[in-house]
Design brief:
Elements: E1 6-13, H1 16-30, E2 34-41, H2 55-67, E3 74-79, H3 88-102, E4 106-110, H4 117-129, E5 134-138, E6 151-155, H5 157-168, H6 181-194, E7 199-207
Parallel strand pairs: 1-2, 1-4, 2-3, 4-5
Antiparallel strand pairs: 5-7, 6-7
Helix pairs in contact: 1-2, 1-5, 2-5, 3-4
Length: 210
């Protein structure tokens, strides 16, 4: 059985990691595994008018804390949202540094089919930087035109609730339909049915090293 001790979650934007694999993060943390979270955009330009520029940074710190990630394991970069393609080489260098510093056993990153330009960069440069590591793609259904559900992490009620509570910390994003509790729970139930469990999160495996 694969039993990773160090897990790195790559999030193009604050909240992507919680949306794609928040329940799994909660599960890993409760098992005593070392979880790191790196977000590349703080998305100040995407905030509703009148909100402080650091709103999403503050919300991300609170959300990842709810899931059990220590503050020391949260890495926040400040690239401009929707402009990651212009910084590919610099981002690759950041990822290579993370690989040296953390040496993770498992990397979770956006799926290959994700159509958002920032997500594509983190996927493509992520698999280059971590080519000798096990890595899998998490799903964000509103961005995925196709997604192969070939790996599942089963979740408990507590872990799904922690995912929901973490996402509630993103008050600035609360109006978005994919942030709603009923959507989060419904998707977890669908993946749970596929995995013969009450709840689950689904991933695409790209490289599996045992």
């Amino acid at each position: 059985m694969f039993n990773p001790k160090k897990i790195l979650v790559l999030a193009p934007h604050t909240d992507d990691g919680e949306l794609g694999c928040g329940g799994s993060i909660s599960k890993f943390c409760s098992q005593g595994k070392e979880v790191f979270y790196a977000a590349f955009c703080l998305c100040s330009k995407s905030l509703p008018h009148g909100m402080a520029e650091n709103t999403l940074e503050v919300e991300c710190r609170k959300a990842t804390s709810v899931l059990g990630i220590p503050a020391s394991n949260l890495i926040l970069f400040n690239y401009e949202v929707r402009e990651l393609p212009a910084s590919r080489q610099k981002i690759l260098e950041e990822l290579l540094q993370l690989n040296k510093q953390i040496s993770p056993d498992l990397v979770l990153l956006p799926a290959v089919s994700d159509i958002h330009q920032d997500h594509q960069v983190i996927h493509q440069e992520g698999i280059r930087a971590f080519k000798n590591t096990t890595f899998a793609g998490y799903e964000l259904p509103w961005n995925n035109y196709s997604f192969s559900t070939n790996f599942f992490i089963t979740l408990s009620e507590k872990e799904v609730t922690q995912k929901v509570n973490a996402l509630k910390e993103y008050k600035s994003q609360a109006a978005k339909n994919y942030m709603k509790e009923n959507f989060i729970r419904s998707l977890a139930r669908v993946r749970g049915v596929q995995a013969n469990a009450e709840y689950a999160e689904a991933f695409e495996i790209y490289k599996w090293i045992v």
